[in-house]
């Protein structure tokens, strides 16, 4: 953990001054995202736009809650080198200075990307392009040497879909597959202290695209190409929900010997469903010891790149959403209220049991709180076109959409204080890899 975080955490009363070394795993009263994450040995970051820093509510929320910032656009190639060799760091410096003066670390985003390239780059021939790429990396990383904890060296270099192929870009088309390796080698030389990351989207679960990135990272590690981490952007919505194998996918990359980071998290939606998905993402990261931190892609819904999808933790008035509470609670913080998947008298938690090509068995464990429970009720929400084909150890009724089942006990309503029971159900995936969400558990 960065020293400034330790100091922040210490001044927040999180840890005793004599126990700094234990800070990473001390989870005492922590009532902000950053302090709660620090208690788990992680950073909690957000994307930031320099143009909003002058808005007092924006800055106050940023400064109170987060321990890492990623410039949303200000470090991209079009922003930093709009003309060849003409570097401008004004907006990016503004963010870095703000972060440093408030004890926050900075993620660098991004050095080599096919998008937001200034128009002078694409027409270059191979030799010139190679020189320009290496110069761009070196100039940026030198300007911020020692000030960036992790850099997205290469962003989004693989195609979507089943091919696992590289995406067409000036770099790919003119320099070939080796451009990624060259970018990482140049980056290591420029700032040896920065973690060097490959960053992409739709690689959050196990699929053809993540398999291709996995193969590249494995090859890099085998050949000693410098790579330290893989960023999982994690832009989710109903068409692209948090995958069932999210944690497993993070873990398989970590097992290659790289850190993993959640780099651009946002989840469209609202209320309990959004909160539960956010909580699940945080829990997945915490379950992977090499998942070193999470970044959400913006502070407030009103400035999100997907603002109509209200995908962030604070609404347009900077009020904390249920998703905020879910994240804080999942991080072990206090003040986030009860987990959205739980109630005061009983809690209900979901896990996936057996899985096969077109289906899986879900399991929900219901646990009584500190008092005995005579009967309980909870809900399980599926994402269409998934369908439940069987339920056991419970009785289920369905809402009009057919996606939400209300579940009550069959024989297993009565629970002693702290005791658990479980029910199960079989789901036909019908092509969707979505994970069910469990609603509040109420007891009588
Ligand atoms: O698209 C979401 C993210 C996917 N992964 C890479 C990220 O870098 C990317 O971020 C978004 C920013 O959140 C947007 O703010 O990247 C977009 C561009 O690809 C950004 O949008 C651009 C607009 O397209 C421009 O018109 C605008 O001038 O933001 C610029 C600055 O506000």
Descriptive notes:
With 444 residues, the protein is of the alpha/beta class. 29% of the residues lie in helices and 24% in strands. It has 12 helices and 18 strands. The strands form 3 sheets. Strands 1-2-3-4-5-6-8-9 form an 8-stranded parallel β-barrel, surrounded by 6 helices. Strands 12, 14, 15, 17 and 18 form a 5-stranded antiparallel sheet that branches. A 4-stranded antiparallel sheet has the order 10-11-16-13, with no helix packed on it. A hairpin with a 2-residue loop joins strand 10 and strand 11. Helix 6 runs parallel beside helix 8 and helix 11 packs parallel to helix 12. Ligand G2I binds next to loops.
Topology (SSEs and partners):
Layout: H1 3-11, H2 33-39, E1 43-48, H3 56-65, E2 68-71, H4 77-80, H5 90-101, E3 105-112, H6 126-143, E4 150-155, H7 170-175, H8 178-190, E5 195-200, H9 208-223, E6 229-232, E7 235-236, H10 246-254, E8 259-267, H11 271-287, E9 291-296, H12 322-330, E10 346-356, E11 359-368, E12 376-381, E13 387-392, E14 395-398, E15 404-408, E16 420-428, E17 437-438, E18 442-443
Parallel strand pairs: 1-2, 1-9, 2-3, 3-4, 4-5, 5-6, 6-8, 7-8, 8-9
Antiparallel strand pairs: 10-11, 11-16, 12-15, 12-17, 12-18, 13-16, 14-15
Helix pairs in contact: 6-8, 10-11, 11-12
This protein binds ligand G2I.
Residues 72-73, 115-116, 155, 201, 233, 264, 305 line the site of ligand G2I.
What attributes characterize this protein structure?
binds ligand G2I; alpha/beta; 444 residues; five-stranded antiparallel β-sheet; eight-stranded parallel barrel
